[in-house]
Amino acid sequence: MILLMTLAYLGCVFAAFRIIKIKVNTTSIAVSVLIGVLLLGSIVTLWKQASPMTDQMTLRRVVLRIVPNVREFVTKVHVESNQLVEKGQPLFEMSTKRFQNAVDQASSSLKSSESNVLKLEFSVASASASVRKAEADMGIANAEIETAKKLKRSFAGAVSKLRLEEAQASYQAAQANYQASNASLKQAQAQLLAARQAVEVAQATLKTAEYNLSQTIYKSSVDGRVINFQVREQTPVARWQFTTVGTLMDLSDTAILAIYPQNLLRNVSPGDTVEIAFRRKPGMIASGKVDSVINYTGEGQFVAGQKVPVVATVGSKGFLAVRINLDDQELAKQLPLGADGTTAIYTGFGQPFHLISKIALRIKGWLYYLPV
Q1: What secondary structure, in 3-state letters, does 22-46 show?
Q2: What's the predicted TM-score (pTM) here?
């Protein structure tokens, strides 16, 4: 585009000297060159600040590793490599025998614990009834003591004394029975509490076993495409991170990363309109919006190590990335990972200069038809 503007200005200069008949001398030539430099320099500067363009861009997506959560042999494979999948769609299944046995054992243990709780609840109820009966017996024995005391005061003698002693002995026996019943009640209550805790442990064990069983069916976590899928029936898979059996490209999160010099991003803000010419789609212009300017670069990161950084090598090329979201999500899904092209951002500054980028971008889009 700069070349076209330069040629246009040279055409104007040629017309001035040939048609208008401006006298050709050192001064006229110097003035025309100076005007050209100032004019083109100002236009290019304002153009770059108003609607910066870049050929350094790429289409990025999140790529997830396919790592099962359990270790077992594969029994069934549902998909093939490079196949489109939906979120929740099974990719492959693993042997369930070991995990089903764990579920059955945990379920049996839970039922046994629940049955034990019922028995102990009955024991607690029975012990509570025994305590209440012992309390009643103590009350009766205490009443008999009071009666015997009154009888002794009214009729002193061996019979009244013997009756008082018998009443006191009955009260002591009732008191001992109450203490024993109360101890039995506390023991039963403690056993019931332990049994209820055992039920909670059994329930947690069953949930863990059921979760492990559910993990034998590996499902897609996103809408995407399976890549480099290396799973076959009767082959073992494991949950170790270094045993990746494939990758899953997330098609629901597609963004464009455009790289710009930092000085051209002064006027760029989230929400600015973007146009993109993709090499994969020559002649077509896609639209989007600026999501954010990624204000960091790895050139500013210093990694701890044994050696002191050499300051002569410290520095940055001065580039930052701009994240762009496409308006057409169907187009975003069709484009390949790593698609390249040319991006133009239309800022709120210098809108008349946006026309230059619009023309340059469309020329670039048509040039992508060329086999280069």
Answers
A1: CCCCHHHHHHHHHHHHHHHHHHHHH
A2: 0.69
